[in-house]
Amino acid sequence: MTPVAALERVVHCLDRAHDTGFKAKAFVRALDVVRSLPADEVAARAAAGTLTELDGIGESSAAVIQQALAGGDVEYLADLEARTQVPLSEAGAVYREALRGDLHLHSRWSDGGASIEAMALTAIGLGHDYMVVTDHSPRLTVAHGLDAERLARQVHDVAELNERLAPFRILTGIEVDILEDGTLDHPDDVLAGLDVVIASVHSKLRMAEQPMTERMVRAVANPHVDILGHCTGRMIGKRDPSAFDPDYVFAACAQFHTAVEINCRPERLDPPRPLLALAIEYGCYFAIDTDAHATGQLEWLPKGCDRAAETGVPLDRVLNSWSVDDLLAWVAGG
Ligand SMILES: [Zn+2]
Ligand SMILES: [Zn+2]
Q1: Would you say 16 and 81 are in contact if contact means Cβ atoms under 8 Å apart?
Q2: Contact 231, 261 (CB under 8 A)
C-alpha cells in the first residue's frame, strides 16, 4: 500500500463513521501534504524519521505513512476498518442486497470532497452497477452550485469517464433547488438533458404550511423532476422538519411519478418513519440514497435500508433496486 492509498483509506473510513472531528481534518490535511510531495521524498523522510517536520504531518499520520511503506499492517487503519463498519440489520440486508446503484451524491464540482472518478471507483467497489451524479444547482452558491455551462462540461466529463469505467454507468443528474414559488433553479431545457433530476428544498425551510405545500407540489408535478430529495429538510437535533401537508405532497408524488427519497445521511434520515409509512400508503416510489459528499459516505445505504425494512417499503417500488435500463425507462416515462 502506498502512503497516499493508506491515508485515502483512513479518510474514507473516518467519513463512513461520519467523524468530522479534529482527527479527521488532520488526516485530510496529511493526505494533501503527501499527495503534493514526490514519493521518494516521502520515503526518504520516513526512513530518516523526519516526516513530522512537515507542516500538516503529525504522529498518527507519520505512523500510517511509515507502516504503509514498510509493507506490513497499518495498525491505525486496521483498527479503523474494524470499528467504522456501517451496521445493517438482518431485515435491512434484504434491501441492501437488492440495491444496484446510488441516485444522489455530490462531487468536487459542487460541495463534495472527491472527484466523480473517485466516487465511481468507490461505488464499483461497493458492487454498484451505476450511480447518478447530482451536484447542486446555482442558487446554492455556498455549495458552488453548477450553472448550465458548468453542468454541460460535467456531462461531457461523465461521458469520457463512462468510456473508461464501462460496464459501470455514471448517469447525469442534478439536485436542483426548489425555489420559493415551487419553480426550479434550472430551466426545463437544461433539466431535460439530464438522466435523473432530484428536487430539494434548501432555503426558506420555515415557510408556513400552506405555501410550503404548494411549493413542493408544484416542484413534484414538474415533468422533469424524478425524485423529491430529503422532503422535510430536518437536521436531527438541530433543525425541525418543515411544515407541509404530506397528504397533498405524497399524493402528488404518486400521481406525477416522482419518487420519495429515503435519505441515508445520519443527520437527516428523512422522511421520518410516520411520513415514510404515509408515502407507502399513497403508492409512492422510493429511492434509497446516500447523498454522499465523500467516498466513505457512499457506504451509508444500510441506514436507509434499515428504515425501509422497518416501515415495510415494497422493494419493487425502490428505483435503485432496478437495472439501469428499467430505471432510465421509468424516469423517461415519469
Ligand atoms: Zn440537499
Ligand atoms: Zn444532496
Answers
A1: no
A2: yes
Q: Which of 95, 68, 61 is nearest to 3 (CA)?
A: 68
DSSP assignment of 190-213: HHHTSSEEEEE--S-TT--HHHHH
Question: Angle at Cα 291 formed by Cα 237 and Cα 253, nearest 5°?
Answer: 90
Residue 305 has pLDDT above 80, yes or no: yes
- Ligand 1 mean position to 290 CA, how many Å? 11
User: Distance from the CA of 60 to the center of ligand 1, in angstroms?
Assistant: 34
What are residue 125's phi and psi, to 5 degrees?
-60, -30
Q: 217-246, pLDDT tens digit by residue?
A: 999 999 999 999 999 999 999 999 999 999
d(CA 235, CA 276) in angstroms, rounded, equals 16
Cα–ligand 2 centroid distance for 289 (angstroms): 9
Give the distance (Å) from ligand 2 centre to CA of residue 275: 20
CA distance 89 to 84: 16
Q: What is the pTM of this model?
A: 0.95
Task: Tell me how far the alpha carbon of residue 230 lies from the centroid of ligand 1, in angstroms.
Answer: 7
Mind listing the pLDDT tens digit for each residue in 162-190? 999 999 999 999 999 999 999 999 999 99
The string of DSSP codes covering 15-80 is: HHTT--SHHHHHHHHHHHHHHHS-HHHHHHHHHHT-GGGSTT--HHHHHHHHHHHHTS--HHHHHH
What pLDDT score does 20 carry? 87
- The whole-angstrom separation of Cα 142 and Cα 180 is 18
Ligand 2 centroid to residue 61 C-alpha, Å: 30
Number of helical (H) and strand (E) elements in the chain, helices listed first: 14, 7
199 alpha carbon, closest ligand: 1
